């Protein structure tokens, strides 16, 4: 059961992105609601709980899953809980082709959908690929100089390296 006054993940996350408190957590294209979150693996050389797990710790504290001074710090669980909460939202989807999964500067790119798109995402059955070249994640089409990438629920147009809403 949700505590009174506690923000749900999407509005909480929007506040965190706007705040600038977390290095690397930022809008890539605010008008298209595309943002990135650093996603560095804890086994990487130079990983720091105070730098690389702050957003995940803040979410754990916000939800009551972590109480500083009472609970043992557990960044692996914080990150897993945050990832699962984010993946469960019908109005946020990862743009996997824009994410960088490995390396010391790994990050994930997500898009916040309008509520009408989110409802459509939940109800629409998965579409079959029209050709063997299309993978199960998404497909790409070109329209002149514009590349349209459809990933899970999101369509993003890339024009000259920038997304177009």
Automatic annotation (TrEMBL):
GO terms for molecular function: DNA-binding transcription factor activity, RNA polymerase II-specific; RNA polymerase II cis-regulatory region sequence-specific DNA binding. Keywords: Activator, DNA-binding, Isopeptide bond, Nucleus, Transcription, Transcription regulation, Ubl conjugation. Residues 117-138 are annotated as: Disordered. One of its GO terms (cellular component) is nucleus. Residues 6-114 form the IRF tryptophan pentad repeat domain. Gene3D superfamilies: Winged helix-like DNA-binding domain superfamily/Winged helix DNA-binding domain. It is found in: Nucleus. GO terms for biological process: immune system process. This is Interferon regulatory factor 1a. It comes from Cyclopterus lumpus.
């Amino acid at each position: 059961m949700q505590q009174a006054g506690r923000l749900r993940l999407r509005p909480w996350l929007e506040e965190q992105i706007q705040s600038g408190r977390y290095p690397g957590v930022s809008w890539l294209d605010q008008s298209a609601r595309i943002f990135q979150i650093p996603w560095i693996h804890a086994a990487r050389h130079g990983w720091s709980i105070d730098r690389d797990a702050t957003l995940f710790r803040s979410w754990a504290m916000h939800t009551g899953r972590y109480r500083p001074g009472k609970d043992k710090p557990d960044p692996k669980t914080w990150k897993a809980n945050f990832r699962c909460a984010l993946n469960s939202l019908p109005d946020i989807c990862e743009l996997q082709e824009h994410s960088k999964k490995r390396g010391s500067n790994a990050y994930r790119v997500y898009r916040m959908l309008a509520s009408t798109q989110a409802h459509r995402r939940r109800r629409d059955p998965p579409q079959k690929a029209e050709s063997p070249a299309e993978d199960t994640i998404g497909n790409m089409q070109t329209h002149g100089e514009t590349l349209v990438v459809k990933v899970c629920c999101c369509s993003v147009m890339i024009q000259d390296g920038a997304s177009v809403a």
